[in-house]
């Protein structure tokens, strides 16, 4: 009897592990394919679509796919500017026609594939923005906040709940899921209030109060709604909702978005990434801590000290993500 | 130190000395109660950062406790948690602005964490447990004790990490090179706290002759 | 009062009489109103100091970078991009109570408008700021420039000042704001790392790059000594070393390649942008001799 009882939770746990591994794999493949598609991005500016496509070939080449032969191959016929400094033309050193209707420009500066540039051809007159696909940029933010700058292991936020909830895998998964949901909702609501109400009215200094008010309100509202509509769900997830109010991350994300004056898409990406990152951190920690219960821990280390040491090992592992970039 | 719990249940307000010592040692927020750990790891890369945040928390704790003690009769019990949160948020914002105005260079390092003080459980739990029930003077000492305990914890961790990680104290180099840069990193912060917690546990065991409750690990603190 | 009210929310509350509801609403409203007033007051009181502290810090950084005396004349020029991103606006302060000047250039470099601003003219809020330029004036000619720049570092953004001497070599780089890790990325804000940029001529800037090779120990010692010794003594002692290293790329901080690259890219971009803009702006600020020294640079 004891054998059968143990195999069922183990299978469920294995299934969950598989699901999470699958999601991570999916994200990685998605990221890679989007990055590859990023080259074709770049909206044609008003003035014609003579420039069909433009791609930055790091570090100092730009490849333009044109709809016809260019008026001249003289470098003076082409102009490239960084969109942050449209008045400073980047020196075009050389122009080569490497295929039919395709020119390769060599520039005198180092180009950044993650930045936005504008390419203008004088003859025939046309211009086009070259930039990474918005999708790729957002995915970078998501992956950055989930892995590279993981809120728990790199920014040490949310530790309060992290150590309390990560003892069992079930609670960890539950907390991660609920947290992600509340995180996204509260971040978007906070963004809306900040950009549309507080910034125009010059009351940005009230951001701390407003953001925590949003969180408290949201948690309260979700709790009430869940209790009325899905009693069973409330039984399972209700306790996690209460714990979220004192979670540092839920306040940090709106604060970071406010400080960076992010747009709605960026704010959403940061919230999504931090939710995913927190869930991953919780899940990993809970798996390890369950194993830890069977280990022989010295008396003075029992409880939190060993959990902190464990977190330190995870943080060390997560440092390996620091060079991760998909925009090339 | 499980005997320190009853401090909050005694009818006669305890003395100032008892409250202070309780806050620093018996119920130290970081090492014993294991609350508000985020800043303990985040800002203790140098002693100066830890000092700044510790002082900020001390001020918020004392001011909030005093405010609640003065106005507790006017706060409706059903909405007391939101009101506590608002009071804490007001003081946090105020201190945040003052720090930004008068210590801009230091503030740049700890700015985000000062704003996050509003989410610290230690402060709101102190308000709920102590400030709302006790008169003004004991509340002041309790707030001061807890705040000093937090500051003490941050200073200990900060010193440990700065000496080992950067070889300096308050910016002055005391070793020729950085001994173990690792301790200045996030991962090292976790290790530092784990080691220091274990150390304080060992101290408690030694003081109690071999039997003591482990810091924070005994109870499953679901929230902090 | 009913002790069932334990948690912030969720506990089943007994139905409330209307009077109690009003009491709660009144209590919350008063609290919020009071808080807003208190915070507003503190904000008004401290905002001024925050602003002054920032200005003071920047002024100090600029005078240090350019090695000026405290009372040297420094002209602060603000650069803006119009909302439609089709023109660049420069605003120069006026003398004393006189209004400042405003120059507007189209993207191809032609001057489209030049005018005077009244002293109290506020900056239109929809102009994108491109940072500021500080020009140190001596006897009517520019003795040095400081350009403000910003780049994305490993953690968040890195704000810095780049100083150029009157004859267009880098006088120094100073990081004024960053959130990098101490001991790693934060090392780019130290004097010895920033000392690597000093002395490089503007012609070498487009090729400025970062290498992960370890820095030679003798050069590291020389850079550390730079802060402690005065300029002429340092050049006498370490001149040949500097000549050897001035052609090499910037040595990255070990374990902080991203931050080192970010700062170098930012410095490069800021200098190149400034060079182009001063070509157009210089003659209007200082007279035809303003952009002397730039001809012939690649």
Summarize the structure.
Chain B is mainly alpha-helical and 224 residues long.
> What low-confidence regions of chain C span 5 or more consecutive residues with pLDDT below 50?
1-11, 293-298
What number of structural domains do the residues of chain B give?
Answer: 1
Determine the strand fraction of chain B and express it as a percent band. Answer: under 5%
Whole-number count of domains of chain C:
1
Quote the beta fraction of chain C.
Answer: 15-25%
Structure description:
The complex is a heterotrimer of chains A (328), B (224) and C (298). Chain A contains nine helices and eight strands. With 328 residues, chain A is an alpha+beta fold. Chain A has two domains: 2-34 and 135-323, no CATH class; 42-131, Immunoglobulin-like (Sandwich). Chain A has a four-stranded antiparallel β-sheet with strand order 1-2-6-5, with no helix packed on it. In chain A, strands 4-3-7-8 form a four-stranded antiparallel β-sheet, with no helix packed on it. The longest helix of chain A has 36 residues, at 2-37. Chain B has helices at residues 16-26, 37-42, 47-71, 80-102, 104-115, 121-131, 136-166, 186-207, and strands at residues 168-169, 172-173. Chain B is 63% helix and 2% strand. Chain B has a two-stranded antiparallel sheet. The model of chain B is unreliable at 1-9 and 214-224 (pLDDT under 50). With 224 residues, chain B is mainly alpha-helical. Chain C has one domain (60-291). In chain C, the strands form two sheets. Chain C has an eight-stranded antiparallel β-sheet, with helices on both faces. Chain C has a two-stranded parallel ribbon with strand order 9-10. In chain C, a hairpin with a 4-residue loop joins strand 7 (157-165) and strand 8. The longest helix of chain C has 49 residues, at 18-66. The chains are: A alpha+beta (328), B mainly alpha (224), C alpha+beta (298).
